[in-house]
Every structure is written in C-alpha cells, then in structure tokens.
Amino acid sequence: MLPATQRRTVEAVAVLGDHATPTMVSLTTGNPTAAELDDRSGAFARRDLLRTGSDGRWTLRHPLLRASVYERTPASRRAEIHRVAAEELARTGASAAERAHHVARSLTGWDPAAAAVLSEAAARPTRHPPRPHICWT
C-alpha cells in the first residue's frame, strides 16, 4: 500500500491524463513543495511506474495501469481533480475544447457554466480527430 501522498500523486496522474504536468499534479495534490513532488515522482520512476515525456508531462507506464488507478480512485476524488484541472486550464486561457473533458468529468449536478463550455466545445471544429483513449476511464 502506498503512503497517502504518493497515492494522491499517482491518482492525479491517472486522472489528468494528457494534462499531467508537474504544475497540474501539484495543484491537485495539495500544492507540495517542488522537492516533495520530485521525491514522489522519483519514487515512481525508480519503480518504472511513472515516466516523464520530453515535454515534461507525466504518464503512467501503461494505459492499463492508468485505467486501473483511475477506476480505483474514489469518484469524488476524480471529480475534484477534474474540477481543479478545468479551472486551471480556464485560468491559463485553454480553449473550451481542451477543457471539455475535465469539465464533463467534474460535474456532480447541473452547472450552467459547464454547459456553456461543453456547448462551445461541441460547436467548434477541432484540428485533431477525437482520441478514443481519453474516454477509456
């Protein structure tokens, strides 16, 4: 069993998916110091569970591992991670299409602001085809 801080970190990476940057992981795990976050990521990297891409994004070593961690993360925790990610993406000027996944997965009831983001994302064409792996979880 993982210590709580490490468990929260791996859950955040699984839930954030393509948005699992050190900044996003930090925001969704209680804003640990840079050294604490480095210790956590290093522990997972040494076990070959976590990998860092050339763009600095974190990923779990296999999509099935990500799916397993995602499914074992309590629904309320998943929704909170998605909510924080959607808010941070909005704060940094991300498009509705980029935020839509996190907005949709953060909903716990009717939210007119979320509906507006999802409607905007649906109305705008995207340059990239849908990526089905995003919806595994």
Shape descriptor reads: globular
Strand content: under 5%
Q: What is the averaged pLDDT score?
A: 89
The protein's oligomeric status is single chain
DSSP, total strands: 2
Report on this model:
By secondary structure, the protein is mainly α. A two-stranded antiparallel ribbon has the order 1-2. A hairpin with a 5-residue loop joins strand 1 and strand 2. The longest helix has 17 residues. The chain is globular. It starts with a helix and ends in a 14-residue tail after the last helix.
What is the structure about, briefly put?
With 137 residues, the protein is mainly α. Helix content is 61%, strand content 4%. The longest helix is centred in the middle third of the chain and has 17 residues, at 75-91.
List strands and helices in order, with pairings.
Elements (H helix, E strand, L loop, with lengths): L3 H13 L5 H7 L5 H13 L3 E3 L5 E3 L2 H10 L2 H17 L4 H11 L5 H12 L14
Helix pairs in contact: 1-2, 1-3, 1-4, 1-5, 5-6, 6-7
Using brief descriptors, characterize the structure shown.
137 residues; 4% strand; globular; disordered C terminus
